[in-house]
Design goal:
single chain; 291 residues; alpha/beta; two-stranded antiparallel sheet; 12 helices; binds 1,4-dihydronicotinamide adenine dinucleotide; binds (2S)-3,4-dihydro-2H-pyrrole-2-carboxylic acid; NADP; proline biosynthesis
Length: 291
């Protein structure tokens, strides 16, 4: 049975779970111009959550069912602990005409498809810098085997009812709020521990760098501005220079200078190991969410 294509220029997007991740995606998508806010909806009973979305033109219903009925693409953005109940509750409305997406950490695609009674499901691991168009997003979807122009095209994997066009739609949507990658689902826990949770590690680093500036005598506002711009600049150098971060680090550390004195302190206290441990621990926690 062929899957009805979703019209790129008219489809409507709904979020089940109007929280921080949903808001970040919605803000980024609207900011990018890919979707007008009138084509986006969600539902919440909390006035603060409602006004957060209504403030940039998103329609806020009172019930999840209304969101599903109003949407062609439905993003499940509730916590992993509740996603099963939420999908099961909405299952009667999740027709094959709708493209379903989950951003929930650790929840496996096969389980999502079972609960939804639909294989037209895509797993996505974004992060909150989507709100400013700088997300790191990874996609995984099972796609049907199909022949295209007499050549054989095996996209990702077999068995799903998501189509290549569905994958292109999701790639365009999340590509509008940052960079996208595709990866096998078995990597998703590690991906979640690194890029899903990673912004929080960097926020702590920025806060600590600013505290260091204050400890060295800087006014708080100047210290925070310098810390955040330094991290933004360093990340931009890695993304744009094509150089390895180790080389970029060596380019800053002058012999007998200030930087190597600071690096020595970091290395003495296991800075690298601490960051590695954070990613590994978050990936482990993500694995705990799967059935
Ligand atoms: N916050 C982040 O940086 C990231 C979050 N995620 C994933 O996104 C999902 C949401 O995470 P957050 O936005 O951080 O959590 P959140 O707690 O900010 O948002 C979840 C929202 O769902 C609502 N909710 C709870 N039960 C509901 C129900 N039955 N029907 C409708 N809404 C319901 C809650 O009131 C809350 O507003 C999680 O699965 C998480 O793993 C993925 C990547 C990054
Ligand atoms: O902390 C969490 O569980 C979510 C998933 C990745 C980032 N935030």
């Amino acid at each position: 049975m062929t899957t009805a294509p979703i019209q790129l220029d008219t489809y409507k997007l709904g979020f089940i779970g109007a929280g921080k991740m949903a808001e970040s995606i919605a803000r980024g998508v609207v900011q990018s111009g890919v979707l007008h806010p009138s084509r986006i909806s969600t539902a919440h009973s909390n006035p603060l959550r409602r006004s957060a979305f209504e403030s940039f033109g998103v329609k806020v219903f009172s019930q999840n069912q209304q969101v599903v009925e109003d949407s062609d693409v439905v993003i499940f953005s509730v916590k992993p602990q509740v996603v099963k109940d939420v999908v099961l509750q909405l299952q009667p409305l999740l027709s094959k005409k709708k493209l379903l997406v989950s951003v929930a950490a650790g929840v496996k695609l096969k389980d999502l498809q079972t609960w939804a009674g639909s294989e037209r499901f895509v797993r996505v691991m974004p992060n909150t810098p989507a709100a400013v168009g700088e997300a790191a997003t990874v996609l995984f979807f099972l796609c049907t085997l199909f022949f295209h122009c007499a050549c054989f095209c095996l996209v990702m994997s077999l068995g799903g009812a998501a189509t290549e066009a569905d994958g292109e739609l999701i790639s365009k949507l999340f590509g509008s709020v940052g960079k996208i990658w595709k990866a096998d689902e078995k990597l998703f826990d590690a991906i979640t521990g690194l890029s899903g949770s990673g912004p929080a590690y960097v926020y702590i680093a920025i806060e600590a760098l600013a505290d260091g500036g204050v400890a060295a005598g800087l006014p708080r506002e100047l210290a925070l501005g310098l810390a955040s711009q330094t991290v933004l600049g360093a990340a931009s150098m890695v993304c744009q220079s094509g150089k390895h971060p180790g080389q970029l680090k060596d380019e800053v550390a002058s012999p007998g200078g200030t930087t190597i004195a600071g690096i020595h302190e970091l290395e003495k206290d296991g800075f690298r190991g601490l960051l590695m441990n954070a990613v590994v621990a978050a990936a482990k926690r993500s694995r705990e969410f799967s059935n």
